[in-house]
Amino acid sequence: MTRTVLVTGSSRGLGAAIGKTLSQQGFQVVINYYKSKDAAEKLVSEIGKENAVAIQADVTNRSEVDRLIKEATEYFGQIDVVVNNALVDFKFDPNKQKAFTELTWDDYQKQLDGTLKAAFNVVQSVIPQFIGRQNGSIISIGTNLYQNPVVPYHEYTTAKAGLIGFTRNIASELGQYGIKANVVSGGLLKTTDASAETTPEVFDVIAQSTPLKKVTTPQDVANMVAYLSSENADGITGQNFTVDGGLTMN
């Protein structure tokens, strides 16, 4: 049976790469977007309307998430996998990143809402159908920066680190229902909208620091997400998979 995957924040960047890769590997894909309607609809046309649908929703808003889950379920019949990918208003710009002494709690709260609150909303909204079928998979996009803060993106990294605790608790409680939960933590991606302002010097330092002598690409992360979305990964839960060319080793 074809699996349906909801990817939040997937009209562009890493989310779009994940959506395309999933479709190429035989999944049906729900493309969620907030403002980028044209990009989302273009992606659907590239994949094909029989295998993809674009649905607008602000994932930090629970009522909109409930509508997203309802519409996606009605379109494809069910949701088998959710990928918490949405990134809310953050740029990897080492020249403009605030020093810790300049940050406010609002800076942290914005990232906590965009990362943890969004994941909470999506997971809690979809979980009744996962429990009903005794199966389902939750995949959240993290970062290797929590292990190795090459650039101290304080608020972003803190929120993403929280995803690991969130995920492991979900995995522990919901495993009895056949539900899996994992994190895919990529390195700094070359290149997405979020990393467009990252200087070549930073990318070069990262590349030379990895055993593979390369910077992580969106495709590298998308491949791992696709694997975890498949039946081949049905025995895996509570894990954090780091995809960064070996820059950080667990």
UniProtKB/TrEMBL annotation:
One of the record's GO molecular function terms: 3-oxoacyl-[acyl-carrier-protein] reductase (NADPH) activity
Tagged with keyword Signal: no
InterPro entries: NAD(P)-bd_dom_sf (IPR036291), SDR_fam (IPR002347)
Superkingdom classification of source: Bacteria
EC id: 1.1.1.100
Keyword Mitochondrion: no
SUBUNIT field: Homotetramer.
UniProt name for this protein: 3-oxoacyl-ACP reductase
Species this protein is from: Virgibacillus xinjiangensis
Lineage: Bacteria, Bacillati, Bacillota, Bacilli, Bacillales
